[in-house]
Amino acid sequence: MGTGIAGTYVYTPGVEGITKKIEKETEDFIEGKQLLSLTVNNHLVKLMIKSQTTLAELLRNHLELTGTKISCNQGECGGCTVLIDGKAVYSCHILAFDVAGKNVVTVEGLMKGEELHPIQKAFVDHDGMQCGFCTPGQIMSAQALLMKNPKPSKEEIIDGMSGNLCRCAAYPNVIESVVAVVENE
């Protein structure tokens, strides 16, 4: 009789899946995970994460969107900048649960298929990067600025990009990249 029960368990369709689901839910509960729902790059995302997970960690570690860089991890350098409902935000300095139900756009989300967004293309064409580590944050800040003000002056560009640090000092080319987009619009 014991083998009959074991045999039934092994061959009953769906039992293994239900068991794994219960085990996963129990593990999530023990680890303190909760369900988060948000939109990332125009895709609805629902996943279980710990409440202390930052948005940057969610993007990089859970969604594999590694364009968002974690440099200082203190909300000071801008390398992790993403757009939340169209506003530039340091993703290392905000909890993922604080953006529940909101729309997050990363540097990957600017592209249409394999085609670069105009601001991304301008950074390539005008050498708006050197090592490239700060580039995604620079691009996202520039995009937020251009969404708010499509025709900023050079001074407004400099002011709008001031929250992004570049250790390579590529600032002149960063500014030139944004100016090129403004002039081509």
Keywords:
185 residues, alpha+beta, Ubiquitin-like (UB roll), five-stranded mixed beta sheet, 5 strands, 15% strand, elongated, disordered N terminus
Describe what this molecule looks like in 3D:
By secondary structure, this protein is α+β, with helices and mostly antiparallel strands. It has one domain: Beta-grasp domain (Ubiquitin-like (UB roll), Roll), CATH 3.10.20. The chain has helices at 2-11, 15-30, 55-62, 118-125, 135-148, 154-160, 171-184; strands at residues 33-40, 43-50, 81-84, 87-90, 103-105. A 5-stranded mixed beta sheet has the order 2-1-5-3-4.
Describe the structure concisely for a colleague.
By secondary structure, this protein is an alpha+beta fold.
Please write out the topology.
Layout: H1 2-11, H2 15-30, E1 33-40, E2 43-50, H3 55-62, E3 81-84, E4 87-90, E5 103-105, H4 118-125, H5 135-148, H6 154-160, H7 171-184
Parallel strand pairs: 1-5
Antiparallel strand pairs: 1-2, 3-4, 3-5
Helix pairs in contact: 4-7
Approximate shape: elongated
**Helix/strand order, N-terminal first:** HHEEHEEEHHHH
The CATH topology label is Ubiquitin-like (UB roll)
Q: Averaged pLDDT, please?
A: 89
Work out the helix count: 7
Contiguous uncertain segments of 5+ residues: 1-10
CATH superfamily: Beta-grasp domain
Helix content: 40-55%
Q: Which structural category fits the helices and strands?
A: alpha+beta
What is the strand arrangement across the widest sheet? 2-1-5-3-4
Largest sheet, in brief, is: 5 strands, mixed
Number of strand elements: 5
Computed over alpha carbons, the radius of gyration is 22 Å
What is the terminal separation in angstroms? 77 Å
Can you name the CATH architecture? Roll
CATH class: Alpha Beta
What's the number of domains?
Answer: 1
